[in-house]
Design goal:
The protein starts with 13 loop residues before the first strand and ends with a helix. Helix 3 (106-113) runs parallel beside helix 6 (158-170) and helix 6 (158-170) runs parallel beside helix 7 (188-201). The chain has eleven helices and ten strands. It has a domain at 101-173. The protein is globular. Strands 6-7-8-3-9-10 form a six-stranded mixed beta sheet, with helices on both faces. By secondary structure, the chain is of the alpha/beta class. The protein has helices at residues 52-59, 83-89, 106-113, 121-127, 130-142, 158-170, 188-201, 214-220, 238-242, 245-250, 255-261, and strands at residues 14-23, 26-36, 41-45, 67-72, 76-77, 91-94, 176-180, 206-210, 223-228, 231-236. The structure holds adenosine-5'-triphosphate (ATP). Residues 23, 26, 28, 46, 48-54 line the site of adenosine-5'-triphosphate.
Length: 263
């Protein structure tokens, strides 16, 4: 089936230059440069207060920069758009707390998330096209909830609720998906499935994941960006990051302590 837009072959999906975010005189982001290619699965890590959430907030339009440029698909200046316009442009954001309708079924939640004119749920169901039904089936399968499509969302486990919410974003077919700690509070097996889901999503879409769980990052990250004090400290594979002295200093424990552990 035709699902999300095909990945572009070249060009940055996101390019941020010299970004600054000022909260009443406190610079949560200061001189941040960041770029992302279409199709990447990028993990964003860093100590508390590094500015990770603020960066996602800028990308989805919740927070406006005080300086710098934030470009989407080269030509779109995200700072000039409101949050709802950015969602329509193709950037989907999932926050930590699920915002599903607990009294509706999994299927109904997905139906309500599809881009279509608002109306009564019953009429949405009646008006669903074959293409939409096939899209729902595709994403139900992807989030592993095919067998629970008629179950009330409120009866799902914590992990399943998170996947449903990811499915509700996916069904809108964003080009870029922003996820804040998607595996937080999950069981080991749910965490594993979430990592696999992220890889499946990145076959077609671009994903940025803010994550604190370093085991999860080690297991599923391809490229990692480390933030510190509102800027990018370093970027690379998990191996690069673990061998970086600056990261060892500020994030993973001081180099001396780490070396001592290995002797
Ligand atoms: N609305 C706000 N007003 C004032 N300061 C803020 C605001 N939002 C965030 N900050 C501050 O900006 C800094 C960066 O916060 P941010 O939440 O982006 O960090 P983070 O890397 O996501 O941290 P954590 O991992 O703890 O969630 C912190 O010092 C925070 O207290």
């Amino acid at each position: 089936m035709e699902t999300s837009p095909k990945k572009q072959l070249s060009g940055d999906l996101i390019r941020i230059e010299q970004l600054e975010v000022d909260f009443d005189g406190f610079k949560a982001i200061r001189g941040l440069d960041f770029s992302l290619q279409p199709g990447e699965l990028r993990f964003l890590i860093g100590p508390n207060g590094a500015g990770k959430t603020t960066l996602l907030d800028v990308l989805c339009g919740k927070v406006k920069p005080s300086k710098g440029s934030v470009r989407f698909k080269t030509s779109i200046d995200l700072a000039r758009h409101q949050e709802h316009q950015i969602a329509q442009l193709g950037i989907g954001r999932k926050f930590q707390a699920p915002s599903i309708f607990v009294t509706l079924s999994v299927l109904e939640n997905l139906l309500l998330s599809m881009r279509q004119k608002r109306g009564l749920l019953s009429s949405l169901i009646a008006k669903t096209t074959a293409e939409q039904r096939s899209r729902i089936k595709y994403y139900l399968h992807m989030i592993g909830l095919e067998h629970k499509s008629q179950d009330k969302a409120g009866s799902l486990s914590h992990g399943e609720k998170q996947w449903l919410e990811i499915g509700m974003l996916l069904i809108q077919e964003p080009e870029l998906l922003l996820l804040d700690e998607p595996a937080a509070g999950m069981t080991d097996s749910e965490t594993e499935k979430t990592g696999e889901l992220l890889h499946k999503i990145s076959d077609r879409q671009t994903v940025i994941v803010v994550e604190h769980d370093m085991d999860f990052v080690r297991q599923f990250a391809k490229t990692v960006t480390v933030m510190h004090e509102g800027a990018v400290l370093c970027e690379g594979t998990m191996d690069d990051i673990q061998n970086d002295d600056k990261v060892a200093e500020v994030y993973l424990g001081r180099r001396g302590e780490r070396d001592a552990e290995h002797t």
